[in-house]
Amino acid sequence: MYYHFSTKEKLLRAAAGRLAGARARDRAKAFRSRGLSALDEHWRFIEEGVASRSEQAWHDVVVLSRNDRAVAVEIEKVREPEWRALVQRLPELFLELGSVPPAPVEEVAVAILAFADGVALGLAAGTPREALRSAYDAFWLALIAAGQSAARR
Question: What is the pTM of this model?
Fold first, then answer.
């Protein structure tokens, strides 16, 4: 380990970057699907992340980043492209779902990423899957309905 990473901090930064990168790629891949399939794929990636324990590792790294600015920067390097990809995809996705984004897409993307993180934490903590899937579906239905209302104005 010390041959490749001379300090524990460098090892942590490298792990954070790899973990964040894999997570961002999986989630971005999910949203490449069309319409409701994109939402189901996104859910599947969340569940797989929890099952593989990578979501728990991600949240542990996020907590550690509060005290290590270098780890926080590493996370942001990867989280920014994930957010940007979602910002680009959202207008088309909402059209596929018969709606429009209910707020600026940048804000909607932040809400989606934060909600997905919360769902993953809930699954990891043992909240029943059915309850969280219902909340996930309700979240998306609320976004879609709010976009339909906004489109009528």
Answer: 0.86
Q: Tokens standing for 53?
A: 């324990």
- How far from the centroid of its chain's Cα atoms is residue 77's Cα? 14
As a whole number of angstroms, the distance between CA 90 and CA 27 comes to: 13
Place of tokens 């104005």: 153
pLDDT digit string, tens, across residues 39-79: 999 999 999 989 988 888 888 888 888 888 888 887 788 78
Phi, psi of 145 (to 5 degrees): -65, -40
- Interatomic CA distance for residues 151 and 122, integer angstroms: 33
Q: Is residue 128's pLDDT more than 80?
A: yes
Amino acid present at 7: T
One-letter amino acid of 129? R
- Which amino acid is present at 16? A
Sequence letter at residue 62: V
